[in-house]
Amino acid sequence: MIETDLCIIGAGSGGLSLAAGAAQMGARVVLIEGAEMGGDCLNTGCVPSKALLAAAKQAHAMTTGARFGITPVVPQVDFAAVKDHVARTIAAIAPMDSQERFEGFGVQVIRGWARFTSTDEVEVGGQRIRARRFVIATGSVAAIPPIAGIETVPFLTNETIFALHVAPSHLIILGGGPIGMEMAQAHRRLGVPVTVIEAARALGREDPELAALVLANLRAEGVVVLEDAPAVQIAGEAGAIAVTLKEGRVIHGSHLLVATGRRVALERLDLAAAGVEATPRGVTVGADLRSVSNRRVYAIGDAAGGAQFTHLAGYHAGVVIRSILLGLPAKAATHHIPRVTYTDPELAQVGLTEAEARATHGAALQVLRAEFTHNDRALAEGRAEGLIKLMVVKGRPVGVSICGPQAGELIGVWALAIAARLKLGAVAGMVLPYPTLGEVSKRAAGAYFSPKLFDNPWVKRAVRLVQRFLP
Ligand SMILES: Cc1cc2nc3c(=O)[nH]c(=O)nc-3n(C[C@H](O)[C@H](O)[C@H](O)COP(=O)(O)OP(=O)(O)OC[C@H]3O[C@@H](n4cnc5c(N)ncnc54)[C@H](O)[C@@H]3O)c2cc1C
Ligand SMILES: NC(=O)c1ccc[n+]([C@@H]2O[C@H](COP(=O)([O-])OP(=O)(O)OC[C@H]3O[C@@H](n4cnc5c(N)ncnc54)[C@H](O)[C@@H]3O)[C@@H](O)[C@H]2O)c1
User: Fold this and answer.
1) Fewest CB atoms less than 10 Å from the CB: which of 129, 165, 313, 398?
2) Residue 199: how many CB atoms within 10 A of its CB?
3) Which atom of ligand 1 is nearest to the CA of 311?
4) Res 452: pLDDT
5) Residues 110, 134 share a domain
6) Domain annotation covers residue 431
7) What Pfam families has UniProt attached to this entry (predicted)?
8) ipTM
9) pLDDT at 450 exceeding the cut of 80
């Protein structure tokens, strides 16, 4: 029997952040991982998807140089070599998440699938672990929708698509969320015909105006995106898949990627043995991320049932460290957590979208906009398509949406502004290097003050008066 202060189940984004922090702060930590160290993000999620998108961007650049006077060429894509780049990227980051590194921090790492045997005990590979506190950081897996015939055909998920070394001759993607759209653009730019089948609206969680900009670009690049197109039947075999839509049309493809959302990975844990309540969305926790039914147990990351992002899992780790290690009250907020879909153009959001802000703040809401067409750097780069929207209440941003090149980098300053409750003046008054894309944020914030400054008769009168008395 191992006795410890903290037992963490799952060595992904959340579990690793927590283990590193807790061990270095002096706690005895056991970390259990059933599969690969690093979890989804490193092995089958963020890292491989961004590496694939980077290769796709390179290929795309070769076809789009005409406006700069560079003759476009059709890139020769060595699909297997692209996947080698993806594998090398994972391998380059893997040492940061490795068992050896964590053992170096003093963490006891156990490899195997954990399950609860009582309210204060876990079993893994015949070993029993009793802990003061348990943290469930088991992440999520692809949810497979109950479409007739789906189990009869070979399909890909995020766990298998990055290992595919031969290019599909036609990739069908079920689901137009962030996974579906990122994979659609990556494959299209690498020369693969792609059809996305979306039951409702693609990028449906995002501001519709900004999502439309992304979708227009994807369609212009040749991705076929079918919306309001529920699939009712799937049939076929390896290399020849047929998806029948509700309206009767049949889409034929060589491969099928299922990207219709995620299911939290709780089934191996035997939560009932620990008296831990859960729903299909995740472990039932309060804002303190603590199980409502077993106070020894916490859940972080995807398993906590909220949004699903690596940076959110890392933030959760910080929240529970405060509570578990220092005994201090700690609550996880959500209003300042950014999200980015890494299509081109990127789509970034922090805080409320315009529709959410209108529903929450009504007439008190002011929406400010700035387009990338007025940004000198965007023009120089030939990337003038894009828009930033600021949702402002009483001089403070409550939400920011950006669609454009490097929107994921640009949202950072707004994540800070919202987290620190900064007033818009802090961003409007910031001096930025010229010419940078970041000036688009300053311009949008400045729009809040321009009418107050430039259209105000009192300001004009005051300026005239002061000028009269100046020597
Ligand atoms: C294709 C794709 C792209 C993504 N891109 C991004 C992105 O660009 N940016 C972003 O922020 N997020 C992205 N995400 C989401 C991100 O990967 C997850 O939100 C994040 O990994 C969640 O971290 P976690 O710690 O909760 O779970 P994970 O990182 O999934 O780790 C959970 C770990 O627990 C282990 N485990 C499960 N059950 C047990 C058990 N019973 N015993 C022992 N071990 C167990 C699993 O094997 C796994 O290693 C992406 C996801 C996918 C699928
Ligand atoms: N850049 C990022 O940060 C990033 C990238 C990828 C994934 N992720 C995370 O992973 C999570 C999962 O991504 P996802 O795209 O799989 O899920 P999602 O839930 O965001 O989107 C799934 C989409 O599939 C559609 N859908 C559901 N059932 C369907 C069906 N039967 N037929 C057709 N369409 C159907 C939904 O309407 C929805 O638009 C995201 O919510 C996000 O948190 C993040």
Assistant:
1) 165
2) 20
3) 11
4) 79
5) yes
6) yes
7) Pyr_redox_2, Pyr_redox_dim
8) 0.98
9) no
| Cα 303 to ligand 1 centre (Å) | 9
Cα angle for residues 260, 261, 267 (degrees, 5° grid): 120
301 is in an annotated binding site: no
Distance between CA atoms of 93 and 38, rounded to whole angstroms?
9
Task: For residue 178, report the distance from its CA to the centre of ligand 2, in Å.
Answer: 6
Ligand nearest to the CA of residue 260, numbered in listed order: 2
> Ligand 2 center to residue 112 CA distance, Å?
29
- Mean of pLDDT over the chain: 97
**pLDDT at site 464:** 84
For the domain that residue 363 is a member of, what is the CATH number? 3.30.390.30
Check pLDDT > 90 for residue 466.
no
Evaluate: CB of 180 within 6 angstroms of ligand 2: yes
Is there a single domain that holds both residue 250 and residue 276?
no
Of ligand 1's listed atoms, the one at least distance from the Cα of 37 is 49
| Containing structural domain, residue 163 | 150-260
Please give the structure tokens belonging to residue 130.
Answer: 């009793």
Q: Are 271 and 116 in contact (CB under 8 A)?
A: yes
User: Is residue 54 very low, low, confident or very high in pLDDT (cuts 50, 70, 90)?
Assistant: very high
Residue with tokens 């990556």: 186
Whether residue 251 is found in the same domain as residue 209: yes
40 lines ligand 2 (CB under 6 A): no
How many separate domains does the chain show? 3
Q: Are 171 and 225 in contact (CB under 8 A)?
A: no
Q: So what's the pLDDT on residue 465?
A: 82
> How far apart, in whole angstroms, are the C-alpha atoms of residue 312 and residue 444?
27
**295, 320: one domain:** yes
* pTM (global) more than 0.90: yes
Residues 47-65: what's their mean pLDDT? 97
Report the alpha-carbon distance of residue 267 to residue 21 in Å, rounded: 27
The DSSP secondary structure of 10-72, one letter per residue, reads: --SHHHHHHHHHHHHTT--EEEEESS-TTHHHHHHSHHHHHHHHHHHHHHHHHHS-GGGT---
Is 198 touching ligand 2 by the criterion CB < 6 Å?
Answer: yes
Q: Tens digits of per-residue pLDDT, 178-228?
A: 999 999 999 999 999 999 999 999 999 999 999 999 999 999 999 999 999
CA 91 to mean position of chain CA atoms: 21
